[in-house]
Amino acid sequence: MAGETYVAARAWWDAVARHYQGESVEFGTAVPPESLRLPRALFDSVSDNLIRNALAKRAGQPAIR
């Protein structure tokens, strides 16, 4: 994608985990290759949508982890 910012996958994963700290969201240890880079805006948007949907579902079904 033109103009897209790419970031190291490991750094992105760590940042997302920090962002959701305190919301009872558990992140497994990710160890992608150092060279793996991903489009930040796309991954931020998708991950936020998926996590927010899961949190909303958990509000009605507390057993969801």
The overall average pLDDT, rounded, is: 90
Number of strands: 2
Approximate strand percentage: 5-15%
The level of helicity is: 40-55%
Give the C-alpha Rg: 13 Å
- By DSSP (H or I, 4+ residues per run), the number of helices equals 2
End-to-end C-alpha gap:
34 Å
Query: In terms of structural class, how would the helical and strand content be classed?
Result: mainly alpha
Low-confidence stretches are none
List the secondary-structure elements in sequence, H or E.
EHEH
Strand order of the largest sheet: 1-2
Q: Report on the biggest sheet.
A: 2 strands, antiparallel
- Cα shape: elongated
Question: Explain this structure to me?
Answer:
Helices cover 49% and strands 9% of the residues. The protein is mainly alpha-helical and 65 residues long. A two-stranded antiparallel sheet has the order 1-2. The longest helix is centred in the last third of the chain and has 21 residues, at 40-60. The termini are far apart.
Relevant terms:
65 residues, two-stranded antiparallel sheet, 2 helices, 49% helix, elongated
Topology:
Blueprint: E1 6-8, H1 9-19, E2 37-39, H2 40-60
Antiparallel strand pairs: 1-2
Summarize the structure.
The protein is 49% helix and 9% strand. It has helices at 9-19, 40-60; strands at residues 6-8, 37-39.
